[in-house]
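cron nightly-structures :: item 1 of 1
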Amino acid sequence: MRDSFGRSLTLGVEEELMLLDPETYALAPGVERLLPQEGLKTELFSSLVETNTPVCTTAADAGEELRRLRRLVIASAEREGLAVAASGSHPFSHPEEQPIVQEARYLKMVEELGPVAKGQLVCGLHVHVGMESFERCLRTLAWLRPWLPAVLELSANSPYLAGVETGQLSARIGRLHELPRSGPPPRLESVADWEAAIAAEGVDYTRVWWDARPHPRLGTLEVRIADQPTSVERSAAFAALVQALAARPPEPAGDVLDAVEPAARELGTWELVETLRGPSEALRQLEVGRAEGLTAVAADLVRRSVAA
């Protein structure tokens, strides 16, 4: 496979944003009316829009691009009579009731996966970090594996799903892990290991939905585990955190795993995050607020999703 590795620690960030009825705050289809626009893409459901930043050098640059794209989405949605909200899940709309985008890849996914696919209206923040080589990408993935639960813990932003207060801070991750070929990435010490793992699945690697994965065609390591933040500032903060984690591993993949996994088991992921000199207290707070009624929760998300 031809790859595009060669960049070192550049950033690209994807946000998954929800389109809502501005009066009821229920999910509302309409992404097709927002396109085509550079930086905006469809997702599986018509009530979602994905934004993609260009390649950025720093997290600050990525933050500026995220703000620009949020403003673009909100303005475009308002012209079509829609509102925009950002979180890991919608508080009360049922994913299974939402229209699917009528594109061949999405229709094929629904045909293959059935109800599991139709339950996937949950939103994540995906951070792509440029890698110098495929080998460096795998070393970095090895380093990041024990940290992925901590990234999820910090980003958790989906306590409600389909009208239920789930008792979980991230209901999204459970839905994602219903997909085949999902969950933590396996131990991969070489490109041959990766090629064998993908060949065993019998699908294109973009249909392998690990929590973090190499993305050779983009030349990146893609960290996919984070819930979608509500504030754009928080999205930029997570991009910075992932970039900082990716900058650390110097050793071969097997050595990194052998060194890090015992510490992860002994200390737990939270203490490992603290060794990075700790994200701020604000980064630890659930953004989806409590309110009287789930409509009020959704309305609050719309207000706080605006990019200044």
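cron nightly-structures :: done
DSSP finds twelve helices and eleven strands in the chain.
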